[in-house]
């Protein structure tokens, strides 16, 4: 009897195992990547990979770190960035589930091939993992009007307009370096934009917002329209430039604002545009409770911004305190205050988390209303006079050399802005704050290199086109290269500090010594640029 029971138990176990094994074998281990190109050139990468215990590493080639904007994971509110050897990894902590999900934003992985009028997407095909998978699939979402002329690897094909996808079981995701995703395509709706600055004004308590963007068209066709995403049900919505109001259309249901520019911005040229609107009563950007405002930055375009200057205009309020502290407080009139705040490296992920907590005391006086009428009348007369003057200004045609000199000075101004942002990390002492400095120094490093490369290219062209500027262009090109090298050396120090290879005390001493060298190298560059300004006056 005992032997029969043992036999029954054994047969039951075999049956259960035989039932489970085909089911288990039918579930391959998979990884999935989705690459999405947005309207203005940012690339979003969505990775779904198998979870490896409480800690999952998703890695990329190290050379892509200069293109990294930001990253998020729904499983981990604070994923870690780690740089090691020829890769960098984003480490996600998770407690359950079969998969880990990561969203990363990259920029400048799409290049504009002006000679062939096409875009070129180049980036790693797959994430680098630490366990093999049975199958890998990838989907690439290009603009809906995109037409791909070259795609590699060849198992990726177009499924419908603007969407390419493929999958393979013949790939080792643990292998370094990973394969390259290479797509050449055309698109009339895509423009590669670089927004250098945003000047914002929030008028409180009425919630009227003005935003001015300084931008450059880096690739694609001539830029004639720009789309913004505002909160739904805004009022008093419009757009303007330096000459006045622009044609625009706003859909209050979805919050979309489409603006037609007065003049097209060609590839390589700069432009500016302002939009304004009044927020609805219930909105996530300006919240009021018990004489306290909670204010969030508004970034109505899906792109990164190097500098975001915010001015809060307080009417009939007395400033008590704010976190962070304003960089400037000006009393415009006894009943009006203007507070200025500066933020750097704002992107679609961190804009909503960049907040100001402002405490105030209400102030009321009827007599304070009268001066505003006079100020408004004077401003209207002055604006009309200035508009007439500028409208009558004759158009000046610049030579090719003059245009190149102007472009070089504009690039020098942009490089200077990034340099000042970089040095403010050192002078403020925040360079030792690992969580704060990590994304910012990557942004400043990439920005200085980008503008430095453009300055070197323009200077080389001017050496050939304008022999009288040869010596000065040689000086500018050499000084900008030395500045780029000095910034790269600073990044190496920061990287060693972030990775724990050197302690805080040693890091502070090295940075202090290097800061003197950095200022000297920048001074040489600034002196050469100033000499160019004097020559071109």
Summarize the structure.
With 537 residues, this protein is an alpha+beta fold. It has helices at 2-25, 370-391, 400-427, 434-465, 470-498, 504-536, and strands at residues 30-37, 43-50, 55-61, 68-72, 80-84, 87-93, 99-106, 110-113, 118-124, 135-141, 147-152, 157-160, 163-168, 180-186, 191-204, 208-220, 223-229, 235-241, 244-251, 256-265, 270-278, 286-288, 292-296, 305-315, 317-323, 328-333, 336-346, 355-362. It has a 10-stranded mixed sheet with strand order 17-20-19-18-21-16-15-24-27-26. The chain has a 7-stranded mixed sheet with strand order 4-7-2-1-10-13-12.
Q: Give the CA-based shape.
A: globular
Estimated radius of gyration: 28 Å
Q: Strand sequence of the main sheet, in spatial order?
A: 17-20-19-18-21-16-15-24-27-26
Mean pLDDT: 86
Strand content: 35-45%
- Proportion in helices: 25-40%
The structural class is alpha+beta
Number of strands: 28
| Major sheet size, sense and barrel closure | 10 strands, mixed
Low-confidence stretches: 1-5, 7-25, 392-397
Kindly report how far apart the N and C termini lie. Answer: 109 Å
Query: What is the overall number of helices?
Result: 6
Q: Which key phrases capture this entry?
A:
alpha+beta, globular, 537 residues, 6 helices, 28 strands, single chain, disordered N terminus, 31% helix, seven-stranded mixed beta sheet
């Amino acid at each position: 009897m005992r032997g029969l029971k043992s036999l029954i138990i054994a047969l039951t176990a075999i049956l259960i195992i035989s039932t489970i094994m085909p089911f288990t074998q039918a579930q391959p281990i998979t990884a999935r990547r989705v690459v999405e190109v947005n309207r203005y050139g940012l690339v979003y990468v969505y990775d779904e990979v198998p979870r490896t215990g409480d800690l999952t590493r998703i890695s990329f080639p190290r050379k892509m770190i200069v293109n990294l904007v930001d990253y998020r994971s729904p499983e981990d509110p604070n994923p870690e960035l780690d740089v090691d050897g020829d890769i960098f990894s984003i480490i996600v902590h998770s407690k359950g589930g079969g998969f880990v999900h990561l969203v990363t934003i990259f920029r400048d992985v799409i290049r504009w091939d002006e000679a062939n009028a096409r875009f070129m997407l180049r980036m790693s095909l797959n994430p680098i993992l630490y366990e093999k998978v049975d199958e890998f699939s990838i989907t690439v979402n290009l603009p809906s009007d995109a037409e791909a002329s070259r795609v590699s690897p060849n198992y990726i094909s177009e499924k419908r307009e603007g969407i390419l996808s493929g999958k393979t079981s013949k790939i080792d995701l643990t292998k370094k370096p990973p394969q390259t995703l290479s797509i050449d395509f055309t698109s009339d709706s895509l423009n590669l934009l670089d927004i250098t600055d945003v000047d914002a004004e929030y008028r409180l308590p009425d919630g009227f917002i003005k935003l001015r963007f300084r931008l450059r068209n880096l690739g694609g066709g001539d830029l004639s329209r720009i789309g913004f995403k505002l909160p739904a049900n805004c009022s008093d919505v419009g757009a303007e430039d330096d000459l006045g109001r622009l044609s625009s259309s706003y859909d209050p249901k979805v919050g979309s604002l489409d603006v037609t520019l007065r003049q097209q911005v060609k590839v390589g040229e700069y432009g500016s545009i302002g939009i304004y609107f009044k927020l609805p009563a219930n909105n996530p950007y300006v919240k009021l409770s018990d004489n306290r405002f909670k204010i969030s930055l508004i970034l109505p375009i899906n792109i990164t911004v190097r500098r975001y200057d915010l001015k809060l205009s307080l009417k009939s309020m007395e400033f008590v305190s704010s976190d962070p502290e304003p960089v400037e407080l000006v009393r415009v009139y006894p009943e009006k205050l203007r507070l200025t705040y500066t933020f750097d490296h704002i992107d679609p992920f961190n804009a909503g988390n960049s907040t100001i907590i402002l405490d105030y005391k209400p102030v009321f006086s009827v007599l304070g209303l009268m001066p505003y009428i006079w100020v408004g009348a004077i401003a209207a007369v002055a604006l009309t006079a200035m508009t007439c003057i500028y409208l009558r200004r004759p158009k000046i045609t610049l030579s090719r050399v003059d245009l190149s000199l102007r472009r070089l000075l504009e690039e020098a101004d942009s490089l200077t802005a990034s340099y000042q942002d970089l040095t403010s990390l050192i002078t403020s002492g925040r360079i030792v704050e690992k969580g704060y400095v990590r994304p910012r120094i990557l942004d400043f490093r990439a920005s200085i290199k980008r503008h430095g490369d453009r300055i070197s290219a323009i200077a080389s062209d001017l050496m050939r086109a304008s022999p009288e500027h040869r010596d000065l262009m040689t000086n500018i090109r050499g000084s900008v290269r030395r500045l780029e090298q000095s910034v790269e050396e600073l990044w190496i120090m920061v990287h060693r500090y972030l990775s724990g290879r050197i302690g805080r005390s040693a890091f502070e001493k090295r940075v202090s010594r290097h800061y003197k060298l950095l200022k000297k190298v920048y001074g040489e560059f600034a002196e050469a640029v100033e000499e160019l300004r004097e020559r071109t006056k």
